[in-house]
Amino acid sequence: SQKIEQNSEALNIQEGKTATLTCNYTNYSPAYLQWYRQDPGRGPVFLLLIRENEKEKRKERLKVTFDTTLKQSLFHITASQPADSATYLCALDYTGNQFYFGTGTSLTVIP
Amino acid sequence: GAVVSQHPSRVICKSGTSVKIECRSLDFQATTMFWYRQFPKQSLMLMATSNEGSKATYEQGVEKDKFLINHASLTLSTLTVTSAHPEDSSFYICSARGAGSTDTQYFGPGTRLTVL
User: Fold this and answer.
1) Which residues contact B53 (CB under 8 A, 6 or more apart)?
2) Under 8 Å CB-to-CB from B93, ≥6 apart: which residues?
3) What residues 23-42 of chain A have any CB closer than 8 A to a CB of chain B?
4) Which residues on chain B place their C-beta less than 8 Å from a C-beta of chain A?
5) Do the beta carbons of residue B32 and residue B49 sit within 8 Å?
6) Nearest Cβ partner for A97 among B49, B103, B110
7) Which of A30, A72, B4, B56 could disulfide-link B50, Cβ–Cβ 3.0 to 4.6 Å?
């Protein structure tokens, strides 16, 4: 079965620095890889989607890369702010109804 | 756009009773809806996928007779937890995917179920 690992359970960084979160998977590459933000007691909020034939995607301070050879996606938040503190989830979408979430990384941005 | 709501947001029930959770897509038609369960400090686990007008597809290990899913319209899916027990206490989250879309899922705010 597919195993999805996100780098660490918790990540603390100083405000203004770049946060880098990792998502690694074991089986065949998905058609899409997505990143979500989840705040405590709330549902996930979609951030970015990257397709298997794309190397990089950007949206404002967010950047996602997707390396199907390494079976890895990196999620970067530049100029991080305390408001970016949340749990970030990667999700593998195998086109259609197979959708699997990673374990999540709790990010804390320290003022 | 792409707003998904869930009702109720919190529910407490006695062991042995049934609880129904509603998931609605407010501003788009959702041909596919997904139900997830999330335990504290864990990731979301897909329980089942439902397509409008057809039977839900359950993930391995999820009892279909215990977790009844109905997707009667393009904007509403319901999850009924039958004969709930304390171990069913969890955070239940639905998501919806629009007609013609094969990518982004939009998630509801979740329902916190506590079974006493």
Assistant:
1) B71, B72
2) A43, A44, B6, B35, B36, B37, B38, B44, B107, B108, B109, B110, B111
3) 31-32, 34, 36, 41-42
4) 4, 6, 32, 34, 36, 42-46, 49, 57, 91, 93, 95, 102-110, 112
5) yes
6) B49
7) B56
Task: Give the total residue count for chain B.
Answer: 116
- What is the model's pLDDT at position B101? 57
Identity of the residue in B43, B49, B102 whose CB atom sits nearest the CB atom of A104: B43
pLDDT digits (tens, 9 = 90+) for A10-58: 899 999 999 999 999 988 788 889 999 999 889 999 899 998 899 999 9
Nearest to A9 by CA among A92, A84, A111, A108: A108
- Encoding tokens for residue A89? 């989830």
* pLDDT average, residue stretch B54-58: 89
Q: Is the link from the previous residue into B8 a cis peptide, with omega within 30 of 0?
A: yes
- The DSSP symbol for B86 reads G
Residue A30 DSSP symbol: P
Q: Which residue has the tokens 């705040």?
A: A39
